[in-house]
Specification:
The chain is mainly beta. About 10% of the residues lie in helices and about 25% in strands. The chain has four domains: about 10-20 and about 45-290, Beta Barrel (Thrombin, subunit H); about 430-545, Beta Barrel (Thrombin, subunit H); about 605-810, Thrombin, subunit H; about 825-855. The structure holds 4-(aminomethyl)benzoic acid (4AZ). Its main location: secreted.
C-alpha cells in the first residue's frame, strides 16, 4: 500500500524539470518583503549509502568546527543565522561557550585549504529551554554569527517551513553532511560533502517500525516535533557527524528544510530510519530568536495542493522490512556459497556478503596477500555463484591486514567486477555486528570454507547447537581468565554436535569450515575455523563478529544484520562475569559452571551398567577412561569379566543443549597390583574416546591429601532407579582423626568423611559413589571412591597416582596441596579403643575430639 503511495511522489521529487516550477504558486502577497531569496542553489553543475555531492549543490550547508575539526553540520537560514541541533552544543546539561565554535561556509571538501570557503565566529548559541536530550525532542539550536556570511554561488540560505507546512509520507528529500559513512567508519579523505536521498516517513509508518524491537532489542516512542526519514530496509541514512545538518525537500523550485539531523539507532539499520527534529513546529521559536535581525530567515508559504498532501498510511499499513540476507531454501542449499577459482589452485569456498563482495580465507591465496600490489593473474580469477549462468570476474583482492600471522583474521575480501542482482540465489549471508550474542542452544551448521577436503562418510551439513560462552571459553579458551559477558565479542564460538559416536578412522583434519548459525530462520556467518589437528570435528571457531567493522568498511554495504533472537531462557541474563578454572597439563578438566547455569549437570558422572543387572557410579578421568569402585564392578567370587556399558551425559536430565548422551562399551578392566588385598579402584577402558563436551568431560584428580580450602561432596543417586544425581556436603577428616575413629581396621589410604547436618541420607551407597571436592580456583577434583558397604569411608585416589598415570596417559592430576592422608602416624596417640564407641560417627567424633583435647 505504501509502495504505490511512494511512487508518484518519487517521480515528482526526483525528476525536477528545470523551469517547470510555477512561481505563481506563491502569490506576491505571500512573499515576505523582508525575506531574502532562499532555497535556490545557483545552477552550476556520506552520510551512509550516499555519494559525493557536486560543489554548490547545497549552498546552505555549513560545517561547525570546534577545536579545529568538524563536529556537526548546520544550515544557513539568514546571513547571520545558522540552524543546527542542540545536542551538538550541550554536554552534561551545560551549553558550551560560543567562542569555542566557528562556522565554515561554502565548503565542499574539507581536506587541505578550504578553497572558496569562509569562516565566521559564533556570537551566540540559542537552545530551547525545554531541551534535555535528543530522545526527549527539541533538539534544535540557533547560532548567531559574529558577522554576516558573504552570500554567493556557494553560500546561500535555505527556506524554512511555516508551522502549517506538511511534508507528506513518501516525499523524497535529501540529507547532507560530512558524517560517518557507516557506524564507526569516518568519511574518508578528501572529505567531500555527502548527499543521500531519503523518504519522509509519516508518523504512523515510523512509529510502526520503532515499535518493533530492533537493535539491542529496543523500541522507541516518537515524540511530537520529531520527523523520520529513510527506508524500512535501512542502508541509506545519516550517521554520526551529520547531526545538526539539514534534511531538505524541493517544492516548487525551492528547497525547504524539513528536518535537522538528530539521532537514530545505529546507522542504516533495518527498521531504524533516522530521526530528525521537524523544523516546521519551531517556526515561532525561530522567529522569536531572530527578531530584529535584518534580513531574517525566509518562511515561504507552501502551495495549498501540497499542504493538503496525501493521506498518511494508517497503522494497518505498517510495513516492516525483513532481513534481506541469510535466507536459504533449506540447510545446505546456501545461496551465498561462492567458489573462487584461481589458476593453479584448488577451488576455494567463500561466502557472498553483498552485491559485489565475497569473503573467503586469505590462506586460499598464498603469496598473493603479502604484497600491496594486486595479484598479477587477477584477470584470470573467477567466482562461481549459485544460479548465475556465468562465472564472475574479480576486480580486487583485499586481504585482512593481520591475515598472514593471525589465524583468527585469516580473511580476504574479493570485489566482483560487476555487482550481481540479488534474488533467491545468489543472496548474501548475514554478518553479525560486534555486539551480537548468539544464544546458547542456537542451531548451527558447518559449511564449506576455503580448501575443503571431503571428510569420508561425513556430511558437511553436520548440525550442532551452540555452547554457552562459559563452556566454550573454558573448554577451548583461556583458563584462569574471565569470560566475556554477552555483548562483548567472545574469543571463540563453539558448536556441540548431536551425533553421538564418531566413526573410527574418520578424520576431520585437512579442512577449513565455517559455522553458520540460524536466528529466526535467518542464517549468520558466525565463525571460521582453521585446520583442526586432532581428527575431531571442529569444535572452537573464531568469531566473525569481531570482523564486522572491517568487512563493512571495505565493502560499504555488506549485510550486517541485527541480532534477531533474544529469548535468553528461564535462567535469564548471564551477565555476571565468570572466570574459568585454571588449566592443567592435559587441558580442561573438572569444569562445571555455577549451579544456575548447569541444570544439575555433572559432566564426568557416568552410569556404569554391569552385566545388565546393576548400575555403578563411574567417573570420567580421561577421554577414554572411567574410574569406578572395584567391588561394584566385579562381584566377589565371580570369575568372568562382565559385559559393561558406560553412559555419559545422562546426569540430571538437563534441559541445556549440551546434555546430549554418549555411550561406550568397556573393552578392558585394569586393576592395580595390590599384594594380597583386592584393590578398591578399577579403571575401565572405553571402546573409543569421547569428545570433550559439557556432558562428557574428565574430572581432575587429586594427587594426595585433603585439598585445602575446598568444599567436598559425595555425589550419588538418591534413587537407584531414576538416577537423578544428588550431592551431599561432607568434610574430610584429618588422617589422625580418621585413624583413631576407626582404629586398626582401615586399610592404608582410606579417607573418612563427616556429613553435614542432615545430609547423611541424601544418596544411596550401593552404586559406590565418588568423593569430590571443588578447589578454591573452581576446578572439580576426584578425591576418592566409596568403600564397600560404607557411606563414610572412601578409597583415596592419591596413593594410586602412579598406577593411574601409567595406565591413562592423559589423567589430569593437579599439583599436590593439603596434607597427606595415608600416614596414620602417631596412632598410639589415639585414646584407647574409642572407635565405634558410639552409634553415630558424629557422636564418636565428638567424643574423640573431647578426649584428644583433654589429653592435651
Ligand atoms: C549521531 O550520532 C547520529 N542514523 C546522527 C544520526 C543518526 C545516528 C547517529 C541516524 O550524530
Amino acid at each position: 500500500m505504501s509502495q504505490h503511495l511512494l511512487l508518484p511522489l518519487a517521480i515528482l521529487a526526483i525528476s525536477p524539470i528545470p523551469g517547470a516550477f510555477q512561481d505563481s504558486a506563491l502569490s506576491p502577497t505571500q512573499k515576505e518583503p523582508e525575506d531574502l531569496d532562499c532555497g535556490r542553489p545557483e545552477p552550476s553543475a556520506r552520510i551512509m549509502g550516499g555519494s559525493d555531492s557536486q560543489p554548490g549543490t547545497w549552498p546552505w550547508q555549513v560545517s561547525l568546527h570546534q577545536g579545529g575539526g568538524h563536529i556537526c553540520g548546520g544550515s544557513l537560514i539568514a546571513p547571520s543565522w545558522v540552524l543546527s541541533a542542540a545536542h551538538c552544543f550541550v554536554t552534561n546539561g551545560t551549553l558550551e561557550p560560543a567562542a569555542e565554535w566557528s562556522v565554515v561556509l561554502g565548503v565542499h571538501s574539507q581536506d587541505g585549504p578550504l578553497d572558496g570557503a569562509h569562516v565566521r565566529a559564533v556570537a551566540a548559541i540559542l537552545v530551547p529551554d525545554n531541551y534535555s536530550g535528543v530522545e526527549s525532542g527539541a533538539d534544535v539550536a540557533l547560532l548567531r554569527l559574529a558577522s554576516p556570511a558573504r552570500l554567493g554561488p556557494t553560500v546561500r540560505p535555505v527556506c524554512l517551513p511555516r508551522a502549517s507546512h506538511r511534508f507528506a509520507h513518501g516525499t523524497a528529500c535529501w540529507a547532507t553532511g560530512w558524517g560517518d559513512v557507516q557506524e564507526a567508519d569516518p568519511l574518508p579523505l578528501p572529505w567531500v560533502l555527502q548527499e543521500v536521498e531519503l523518504r519522509v516517513l509519516g508518523e504512523a509508518a515510523c512509529q510502526c517500525l520503532y515499535s518493533r524491537p530492533g537493535p539491542f532489542n529496543l523500541t522507541f516512542q516518537l515524540l511530537p516535533g520529531m520527523l523520520c526519514a529513510g527506508y524500512p530496509e535501512g542502508r541509506r541514512d545519516t550517521c554520526q557527524g551529520d547531526s545538526g545538518g539539514p534534511l531538505v525537500c524541493k517544492e516548487g523550485g525551492r528547497w525547504f528544510q524539513a528536518g535537522i539531523t538528530s539521532f537514530g539507532f545505529g546507522c542504516g539499520r533495518r527498521n531504524r530510519p533516522g530521526v530528525f527534529t521537524a523544523v516546521a513546529p519551531y517556526e515561532a521559536w525561530i522567529r522569536e530568536q531572530v527578531l530584529g535581525s535584518e534580513p531574517g530567515p525566509a518562511f515561504p508559504t507552501q502551495s495549498p495542493e501540497l499542504q493538503s498532501g496525501l493521506p498518511e498510511p494508517t497503522d494497518e499499513n505498517c510495513t516492516i522490512a525483513l532481513p534481506e540476507c541469510g535466507k536459504a531454501p533449506r540447510p545446505g542449499a546456501w545461496p551465498w556459497e561462492a567458489q573462487v577459482l584461481v589458476p593453479g589452485s584448488r577451488p576455494c569456498y567463500g561466502a557472498l556478503v553483498s552485491e559485489s563482495w565475497v569473503l573467503a580465507p586469505a590462506s586460499c591465496f598464498p603469496g598473493r596477500i603479502s604484497s600491496d600490489l594486486p595479484p598479477r593473474d587477477l584477470d584470470n580469477w573467477r567466482v562461481m555463484l549459485p544460479s548465475r549462468p556465468r562465472a564472475e570476474r574479480v576486480a580486487r583482492l583485499v586481504p585482512h591486514e593481520n591475515a598472514s600471522w593471525d589465524d583468527a583474521s585469516n580473511l580476504a575480501l574479493l570485489q566482483l567486477r560487476a555487482p550481481v542482482n540479488l534474488s533467491v540465489a545468489p543472496r548474501p549471508v548475514c554478518l553479525p555486528h560486534p555486539e551480537h550474542y548468539f544464544l546458547p542452544g542456537s542451531r548451527c551448521r558447518l559449511a564449506r570454507w576455503g580448501h575443503t577436503e571431503p571428510v569420508p562418510g561425513a556430511g558437511s551439513l553436520l548440525e550442532a547447537e551452540l555452547l554457552g560462552v562459559w563452556w566454550c571459553h573454558c573448554l577451548y579458551g583461556r583458563q584462569g581468565e574471565s569470560v566475556p559477558p554477552p555483548g562483548e565479542p567472545p574469543l571463540a564460538i563453539c558448536p556441540a554436535y548431536q551425533e553421538e559416536e564418531e566413526v573410527a578412522g574418520r578424520c576431520w583434519n585437512y579442512s577449513h569450515w565455517s559455522l553458520l548459525c540460524r536466528e529466526e530462520g535467518t542464517w549468520f556467518l558466525a565463525g571460521i575455523r582453521d585446520l583442526p589437528s586432532d581428527c575431531l570435528r571442529p569444535r572452537a571457531f573464531y568469531p566473525l563478529q569481531t570482523h564486522g567493522p572491517w568487512i563493512s568498511h571495505v565493502t560499504r554495504g555488506a549485510y550486517l544484520e541485527d541480532q534477531l533472537a533474544w529469548d535468553w531462557g528461564p535462567e535469564g541474563e548471564e551477565t555476571e562475569t565468570q572466570t574459568c578454572p585454571p588449566h592443567t597439563e592435559h587441558g580442561a578438566c573438572g569444569l562445571r559452571p555455577e549451579p544456575a547455569l548447569t541444570g544439575g549437570l555433572w559432566p564426568w558422572l557416568a552410569e556404569v551398567h554391569v552385566a545388565g543387572e546393576r548400575v555403578c557410579t563411574g567417573i570420567l578421568v580421561a577421554p577414554g577412561w572411567v574410574l569406578a569402585a572395584t567391588h561394584c564392578i566385579l562381584r566377589l567370587g565371580s570369575t568372568t569379566v562382565p559385559y559393561i556399558e558406560v553412559y555419559l551425559g545422562r546426569a540430571g536430565a538437563s534441559p541445556l543443549p549440551q546434555s546430549h548422551q554418549v555411550s561406550r562399551l568397556v573393552i578392558s578392566i585394569r586393576l592395580p597390583r595390590h599384594l594380597g588385598l583386592r584393590p578398591p579402584l578399577a579403571l575401565l577402558e572405553l571402546s573409543s574416546r569421547v569428545e570433550p563436551s559439557p556432558s562428557a568431560l574428565p574430572i581432575c584428580l587429586h594427587p594426595g591429601g585433603t585439598p585445602l580450602g575446598a568444599s567436598c561432596w559425595v555425589l550419588g543417586w538418591k534413587d537407584p532407579q531414576d538416577r537423578v544425581p544428588v550431592a551431599a556436603a561432607v568434610s574430610i577428616l584429618t588422617p589422625r582423626l580418621c585413624h583413631c575413629l576407626y582404629q586398626g581396621i582401615l586399610p592404608p589410604g582410606t579417607l573418612c568423611v563427616l556429613y553435614a547436618e542432615g545430609q547423611e541420607d541424601r544418596c544411596e551407597v550401593t552404586s559406590a559413589p565418588p568423593l569430590l571436592c571443588q578447589t578454591e580456583e573452581g576446578s572439580w577434583v576426584l578425591v576418592g571412591m566409596a568403600i564397600r558397604g560404607s557411606r563414610d569411608l572412601f578409597a583415596a585416589i592419591g596413593p594410586e597416582e602412579t598406577w593411574i598415570s601409567q595406565t591413562v596417559g592423559e589423567a589430569h592430576f593437579l599439583h599436590p596441596s593439603g596434607f597427606p592422608h595415608w600416614l596414620p602416624e602417631g596412632g598410639d596417640l589415639c585414646p584407647p579403643d574409642m572407635a565405634r564407641a558410639s552409634g553415630s560417627p558424629r557422636a564418636a567424633l565428638f567424643l574423640l575430639l573431647l578426649t584428644l583435647l583433654i589429653q592435651g
